[in-house]
Design brief:
Shape: globular
Radius of gyration: 18 Å
Number of strands: 5
Order of helices and strands: HEHEHEHEHEH
Oligomer: single chain
Number of domains: 1
CATH superfamily: Response regulator
Helix content: 40-55%
Largest sheet: 5 strands, parallel
Distance between the termini: 43 Å
CATH architecture: 3-Layer(aba) Sandwich
Length: 146
Amino acid sequence: MIFGILILLKIQNFLMVFNLEVLIMTILIIDDNAIQVSLMRLYLERYPDFILFSAYNVLDGIQIFQNNQIDLCLLDLSLPGQDGTVFLDFLNSLEIQIPVILITGVHFNLIKEISKKYNTYYLRKPFIEEELIKLIHQITGKIKEK
């Protein structure tokens, strides 16, 4: 009986280790445009290894971030109340370094300047699905085929 329990524990340990190697990535989308959020979710939900969270403002994004293990953030810069740089300042204050992709339509020179200051990536709106997926893959290397 003890031998059977040890084998079962070894098998469960193996399965737990194996499951940890699955490429699961949690992505937080922060954008005030519901259509844009729905579009990004549509693109990303095609990949079973992504767990998605959405927020429509910085404060909700911070709350989701604090309550979950987030691996990547898609962040709009132009948000009501507080812009996206407030979220970037929040990450910097905690000395947390996760990849952030700025998703915005602001002037190209401004987005390059902000991206350089905060060490982020960026995509200009409008963008297509392939651009987003390619950039996520370049940043993390964690995209499997659909």
